[in-house]
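for the writeup, i need someone to sanity check this before i put it in the appendix. the sequnce is what the collaborator sent (i think, or maybe the updated version? ugh). structure was predicted straight from it, no edits. if anything looks off just tell me and ill rerun, i have time this weekend
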Amino acid sequence: MLHEGCTENTSAKIGGIMRSILLVEDEKMIRYGIYVMLENSGVPYKKITECRNGKEAVECLKKENYDLVLTDIKMPIMGGLELAEWIENNMEKEKQPMIIAISGYAEFEYARGMMQHHALNYLLKPVDREELAKVLWNAEKIFKEKGNANEDDFDNENASLTRTSRHKMETALEYIRKNYGKTIDMAEVSNHVSMNYSMFSSTFKEYTGDNFSTYLRKIRIEKSKKLLEKTDLSVNEIAQRVGFEDARRFAKVFKEECEETPTNYRIHFPKK
């Protein structure tokens, strides 16, 4: 997990192909607002990685591939136009993510510049939830039409899964997403989707790439990070909200995942 730089938010899969999204915005509250809109849009995604400027986004793009980049145009250090230029000039064409620009009315010429670097579309601030969803679903339609590399990889990895199994996994992930704050285990979730325990375990691992306990832990830690960033709740209260009965256990798991304690994470998180 990156603290000075990109912040990765793993989420439950909502349905369809899992996408990786890079959200680049220097204003903390705007970034959080867009993150929430993305999370609630219904568009299928595996994770959303947050960055504060183009330079941080470049570092993320050097490490792994993303399907979609939503980027503000004017940011300190490195703006969206420079980021789009970097993507075009430094990434193999088949690995270049789709780009959606975010701009203010006064930045329209910059937005036009982004379009020259193959940006799919642009959104005006303040970002409208319905407009964002429309643009995202348009991007998803293009992904499917192209049969892009990530979709092919997903299909190959999951070729052995039946349509029924995939549907049950989607239902299981949605159940986890709604109930991570409670005491849930794999037996409960497998029962919820009417699957044999051992069959559920192997299918879940094949579908998500993680075993059940690891996936649930990631969800809980990412949700706890949001609460540390956005609220004044105590560490003990946050631990309980995300499904840890013991604050000590929560702190231990958090440090394993984030390489620092919850308290230090809150202190060091950029208050921008």
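The beta strands are 7-10, 20-24, 47-51, 68-72, 98-103, 119-124. The longest helix spans residues 212-230.
thx in advance!!
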